[in-house]
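Please decode residue identities from the backbone states below.
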């Protein structure tokens, strides 16, 4: 299984934290954090880009050195610098540095003077009041740390773009003839999400789970049953895969897409008719009256179909009753792009090819925003090249 962009970004972020704890040059620390954001936001897996012969050093914020490190990670699945830093600074120093009132320098001081390597070590030191032995650690900081450590660990949250790359790879792996869709907040296109809810139609649900646990990107199997399997991916993203029968596919998709508030509102409408709505279907007594598709459930409840992006119980139910839901923006509505780069700098296509591509998409305009030489990257346009470019024209 190829290394995912999110994994590389996490490696760079962790390396940045540990370098900062070591007192490394801030320019180097920022370079790793900036590179993490660039890799995280790429629309393609870096392994695919390298296989296609793409020079990663042409990406903004990625020089030759970082491009080489990324290529090494893709090749061997590890980040050698991070492995070295972990040996030099073992434990959870990176997590400790993120606590309020601490920071990299104080985390390093705790490690050097009191051998605090983990959050549990820090809790013990706080209880014994040994923290007061260190200069700069007064009662206010101790109180802040104690309060922060009392909070439950925050759930990992992932940007939609990062989850999208994971979801595409997972769906491609699991696809086996039946229907498969990623539901939950992913389908509602929320900016951030904590997990992926995947629904598949299959006669043998256990076989789907068996296949999932063999997925090379799985770091831990949390649950494995005949119709429901939960795993943790290497990136820290949790995945719940459920096998559902065809006759309940629509009801399950509706239920697991959410939101919770939207589902509660729909169940309230069902109750008004003495019906029951759950993930198996819409029932009148024991008889299923809808459930194979979402559309038939909405129709039975007297509603227009509500697009997943609107299912937040923010007035969409009322609008759906009178068929007055707003039309969502689609790709066909996009009239142009105001930020594109050509092969004059770090793009891969000629200006002519980009203009033709824009015409093919039905765009009315594009704005070329190639880099100037003032941007600290290769191939920035200097005055001579800019004059050469301006002498050309495109119809």
């Amino acid at each position: 299984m190829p290394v995912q962009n999110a994994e590389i970004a996490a490696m760079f972020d962790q390396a940045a934290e540990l370098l900062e704890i070591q007192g490394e040059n801030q320019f180097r620390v920022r370079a790793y954090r900036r590179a993490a954001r660039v890799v995280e936001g790429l629309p393609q897996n870096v392994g695919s880009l390298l296989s296609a012969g793409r020079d990663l050093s042409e990406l903004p914020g990625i020089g030759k050195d970082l491009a080489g490190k990324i290529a090494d990670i893709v090749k061997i699945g590890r980040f050698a610098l991070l492995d070295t830093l972990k040996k030099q600074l073992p434990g959870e120093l990176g997590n400790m540095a993120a606590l309020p009132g601490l920071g990299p320098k104080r985390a390093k001081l705790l490690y050097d003077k009191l051998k605090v390597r983990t959050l549990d070590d820090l809790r013990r030191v706080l209880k014994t009041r040994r923290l007061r032995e260190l200069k700069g650690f007064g009662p206010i900081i101790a109180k802040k740390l104690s309060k922060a450590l009392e909070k439950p660990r925050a759930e990992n949250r992932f940007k939609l773009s990062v989850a999208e790359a994971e979801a595409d790879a997972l769906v491609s792996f699991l696809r086996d003839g039946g229907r498969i869709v990623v539901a939950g907040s992913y389908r509602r296109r929320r900016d951030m999400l904590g997990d992926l809810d995947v629904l598949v139609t299959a006669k043998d649900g256990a076989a789907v789970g068996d296949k999932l646990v063999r997925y090379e990107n799985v770091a831990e199997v949390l649950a494995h049953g005949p119709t429901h399997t939960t795993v943790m991916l290497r990136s820290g993203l949790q995945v719940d895969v459920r096998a559902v029968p065809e006759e309940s596919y629509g009801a399950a998709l509706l239920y697991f897409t959410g939101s919770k508030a939207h589902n509660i509102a729909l169940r309230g409408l069902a109750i008004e008719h003495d019906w029951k709505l759950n993930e198996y279907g819409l029932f009148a007594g024991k008889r299923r009256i809808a459930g194979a598709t979402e559309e038939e459930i909405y129709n039975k409840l007297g509603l227009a179909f509500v697009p997943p992006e609107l299912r937040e119980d923010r007035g969409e139910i009322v609008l759906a009753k009178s068929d007055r839901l707003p039309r969502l923006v689609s790709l066909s509505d996009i009239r142009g792009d105001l930020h594109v780069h050509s092969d004059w700098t770090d793009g891969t296509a000629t200006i002519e090819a980009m203009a033709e591509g824009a015409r093919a998409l039905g765009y009315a305009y594009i704005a070329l925003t190639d880099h100037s030489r003032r941007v600290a990257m290769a191939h920035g346009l200097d005055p001579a090249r800019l004059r050469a470019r301006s002498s050309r024209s495109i119809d």
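Observation: Residues 249-321 form a domain with the Beta Polymerase; domain 3 fold (CATH 3.30.210.10).
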